[in-house]
Write a structure and sequence with these properties.
By secondary structure, this protein is α/β, with parallel strands linked by helices. It contains twelve helices and eight strands. The protein has a four-stranded parallel β-sheet with strand order 2-1-3-4, sandwiched between helices. It has a four-stranded parallel β-sheet with strand order 6-5-7-8, with helices on both faces. The termini are far apart.
């Protein structure tokens, strides 16, 4: 275990090629190996998992993250050093299918406590919902994309954007912490209860803020907001599928332009970690505005908020404006 909180280094790459694990594109400061102090050492795969570990663990945990701030988590590859340090942690918290390199490393790791957030709530396939206006050919095309992105069942991994489901995950994480580190179980439980209240308040704010709007349809750069849309009675139309880097077809762009007119869409949302070029092109061609809707895959200095709650509140304001909330 480790006395001070630090991020696992992405610099040490010399053995990575031999392991076939690749390297991180982002750099971070080097740090001492995990597992050598009296703190409960947790490795989180990316920001939403890191936030849960910090909120629930409080003073008793040291949280490290495999995904550097500003790095697109879908594309993460691990260094040999990261993989080795993960094996020395007390627990690893991740979301299976989002980051294949992480899934592979965890499967081969000796970490005693492996917490898969995907098992703590129900994941869904939003492919048919997101593209129900797209016609058969378009739906098939996107189902194929999402199948390759999301694994065998094409389940949408972006579950943290629904505060209710995120709270379900938090409850499961707390129970895992309590079991793995029973000396601090009471504190983990109390911290989890405090977080549950914050997430319940956030859910209420979304329900109230989006109850009456001029339109229920919003356009996004990639299909990250299916759970949020379903929770609050909205329709997400994604320029791309679940893969934020894929390019939409000309037919898809034309279709979205027509839908914008039909459904009174005012805004095309893009995000902080992915190029906004396609969103801005669509907006210009269709006479729409652009704004940021953050999928909260990482916090950077460009984020509209310092943490999960702050960014989610900014997202709510952006949606209220775009949808014409009353």
């Amino acid at each position: 275990m480790n006395v001070r909180r630090r991020r696992i280094s992405g610099i040490a790459v010399t053995a990575a090629t031999a392991l076939g694990l690749g390297t991180l594109s982002a750099c971070s400061s080097d740090s001492s190996a995990a597992g050598n102090t009296d703190k409960f050492d947790v490795v989180a795969s990316f920001y939403p998992m890191e936030y849960l570990a910090e909120q629930i663990g409080g003073d008793h945990v040291n949280v490290t993250t495999l995904t550097e701030p500003g790095q697109e988590p879908h594309d993460l590859e691990l260094s040999a050093k990261q993989t080795a340090e993960m094996g020395e942690a007390d627990a690893v918290l991740y979301l299976k299918t989002l980051q294949p390199a992480v899934d592979e490393a965890i499967a081969q790791s000796d970490v005693k406590t492996k917490i898969d957030a995907a098992t703590l709530t129900k994941l869904e396939d939003h492919g048919n919902v997101e593209h129900d206006h797209g016609g058969e050919e378009h739906a098939d095309e996107h189902a194929e994309e999402e199948h390759s992105e999301g694994g065998e069942h094409a389940l949408d991994p972006h579950v943290w954007l629904d505060p209710v489901k995120y709270a379900e995950i938090a409850e499961g994480v707390a129970k895992s912490f309590e079991k793995a580190d029973p000396d601090h179980a009471d504190d983990y439980r109390k911290n989890a209860e405090a977080l549950a209240k914050k997430l319940a308040d956030l859910n209420t704010a979304y329900k109230d803020g989006l109850a009456k709007t001029d339109t229920k349809v919003f356009f996004t750069n990639h299909a990250a907001f299916g759970y949020l849309a379903e929770r609050y009675g909205l329709t997400q139309e994604a320029i791309n599928g679940l893969d934020p880097e894929s390019e939409p077809s000309p037919a898809r762009i034309k279709e979205l332009q027509q839908e914008a007119k039909a459904d009174g869409v005012t805004t095309v949302f893009y995000e902080t970690l992915v190029s906004d070029k396609t969103a801005k092109t669509l907006a210009k061609d269709a006479g729409l505005k652009t704004d940021v809707l953050d999928p909260l895959e990482g916090i950077t200095d460009k984020s509209k908020g310092d943490d999960y709650l702050g960014v989610m509140q900014s997202n709510l304001k952006a949606l209220e404006t775009a949808l014409g909330a009353k």
